[in-house]
């Protein structure tokens, strides 16, 4: 559900959580004055919980892999 920012002529700025298929507001829910839909500056993705790190989907810096090699070690005979 998207959150949109609006500006009311009397109340000022506020955010409104829209349900799926709900129309854009034309009147303030508090006072009934006309509102303008603003371009939101709150963009981006927020991950909650552990395990989301910048390096999760990047290769190692030196090109080496952290995975163990599937080849048998020839020196261990």
What does this structure look like?
The chain is an all-beta fold and 77 residues long. It has a domain at 3-38. It is 0% helix and 21% strand. The radius of gyration is 25 Å and the shape is elongated.
Q: Roughly what fraction of the amino acids lie in strands?
A: 15-25%
Please count the helical segments.
Answer: 0
Please, what is the average pLDDT? 74
Query: In which order are the strands of the major sheet placed?
Result: 2-1-3
The stretches of 5 or more residues where confidence is low (pLDDT under 50) are none
Order of helices and strands: EEE
Total strands: the figure is 3
- Which shape, going by the Cα principal axes? elongated
Overall SS class? mainly beta
**Biggest sheet statistics:** 3 strands, antiparallel
C-alpha Rg, in Å? Answer: 25 Å
Assign a percent range to the helix content.
under 10%
End-to-end C-alpha gap = 61 Å
Key words describing this protein structure:
elongated, 77 residues, mainly beta, single chain, 3-stranded antiparallel sheet
Topology (elements, then pairings):
Layout: E1 3-8, E2 12-17, E3 35-38
What's this entry about, in short?
By secondary structure, the protein is mainly β. The protein is 0% helix and 21% strand. The protein has a domain at 3-38.
């Amino acid at each position: 559900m998207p959150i949109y920012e609006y500006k009311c002529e009397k109340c000022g700025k506020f955010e409104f959580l829209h349900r799926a298929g709900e129309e854009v507001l034309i009147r303030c829910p508090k006072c009934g004055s006309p509102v303008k839909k603003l371009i939101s500056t709150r963009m981006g993705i927020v991950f909650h919980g552990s395990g989301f790190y910048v390096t999760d989907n990047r290769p190692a810096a030196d090109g080496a892999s952290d995975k163990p090699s599937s080849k048998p070690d020839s020196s261990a005979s």
